[in-house]
Amino acid sequence: MAINSRATIPSQFQRVVSGMRPTGNLHLGHYHGVLKNWVRLQNDKECFFFVADWHALTTHYEDSRVIEESVWDMVIDWLAAGVNPKKSHIFIQSQVPEHAELHTLLSMMTPLSWLERVPTYKDQQEKLKERDLSTYGFLGYPLLQSADILAYRAGEVPVGEDQVAHVELTREVARRFNHIYGKESGFEQKAEIAAKKMGKKNAKIYARLRRSFQEEGNHDALETARALLEDQQNITMGDRERLFGYLDGGGKVILPEPQPLLTKASKMPGIDGQKMSKSYGNTISLREDPEEVKRKIRTMPTDPARVRLTDPGDPAKCPVWDFHKIYTDESVRGELAQGCKNASIGCVDCKQYVVEGVLKELLPMQERARNFTKDPKMIRTIIEEGGEFAREEARRTMVEVRHAMGLSYSK
Ligand code: TRP
Ligand code: SF4
Predict the structure, then answer these.
(1) pLDDT tens sequence across 153-185
(2) Rounded to whole angstroms, what are the CA distances from 17 to 120, 185, 294?
(3) Domain 11-182+376-404 shares a fold with domain 287-373
(4) Ligand nearest to the CA of 341
(5) Of residues 44 and 410, more confidently modeled
(6) Ligand 2 close to Cβ of residue 47 (< 6 A)
């Protein structure tokens, strides 16, 4: 059984949401680990990509200037990397206050222990010892992230390995929410009425499949019924959610459970062989001056066994090799590996291929970034439009959430 036996994600929830914290320059690690993936996803999914400025504040509340300064450059880097505002909705988190509203509401029903046991909580506190992270906001970091995701009822969340626990928390919170608030009064009757709206034939099929799952545990029947619901054009979103919930005996699915979409990131090491990260000072930034790029790569450590040109080396022991895996064609790479092992090629020449590969990738991006920088008005318009669209969607979710919690104060 798939882990999402209770996921019930109707097709309109096949949406992607992801955010990035604006805390400084983007580097090749962001590009290969995240941005390339976003660019790919926007072609076949509806994507919401946002600047997580509130998340940045959880760690940088004392120097919030950095955030303000990073936001626009970050958006420019996204665009330069190929995130396309015609395909994706690009916006700033704090400009969609519904994220905060949902965060508050979810906080009422989220056990403290769920947040305390999220691994990043203690890890980050250890890692960022110089900052005081014993704050309320920092503990709530992953729950704010859940609100980001659930506000759009996203189906998929592209994240790195370290963020999977946050998506997992989101799933638990959604499940708890649906369990507590999905049982509207008269749910069963409403579901029965909704079924009839699919037409007599479909209603009958639905009833049969539902029985088959509930009485005989037939999972294929459940899947077939879900597919049937996805195909329905004539029922409202609310009715569809009811019918999804009614199928497996749960309540109405108000907040569907998202899946993490693990980035199959080509491992992007830093220039010292460790993971590329600002805190290790081993990055090549997307805005890096080409001369600096050359210098950084030329001074990279290599296989320590190769002291002299005549010493044979082993690519597996060389940090430069991880760059080759990303930047150099397989055929050339084979030759270089040979040359390294029999000492027929020097490290300087070997590295030159990486220099060229990185520059070939960065120069066009930098060119595009320069052009975007010349047009700040356009960037603001992109963010404004993305924000308006996102807000509309998040509002829709909040209407349902408030209604389910008894906060709509109207009939
Ligand atoms: N926590 C994420 C990170 O550090 C950023 C983030 C905030 C995010 N909200 C999100 C990612 C929602 C995905 C979905 O990378
Ligand atoms: Fe590394 Fe290339 Fe030098 Fe071999 S030749 S040690 S792979 S830089």
Answers:
(1) 999 999 888 899 999 999 999 999 998 998 777
(2) 20, 32, 36
(3) no
(4) 2
(5) 44
(6) no
Predicted TM-score (pTM) of the model is 0.86
CATH topology of domain 287-373: Tyrosyl-Transfer RNA Synthetase (1.10.240)
The structural domains of the chain, with segments of one domain joined by +, span: 11-182+376-404, 187-247, 287-373
User: What top-level class would CATH report for the domain 11-182+376-404?
Assistant: alpha beta
Q: Is 45 in the pocket of ligand 2 (CB under 6 A)?
A: no
Of all ligands present, the nearest one to the C-alpha of 22 is 1
pLDDT in tens, 183-228: 777 888 899 999 999 999 999 999 999 999 988 888 899 999 999 9
| Ligand 2 centroid to residue 286 C-alpha, Å | 24
The residue whose C-alpha atom lies closest to atom 7 belonging to ligand 2 is 315
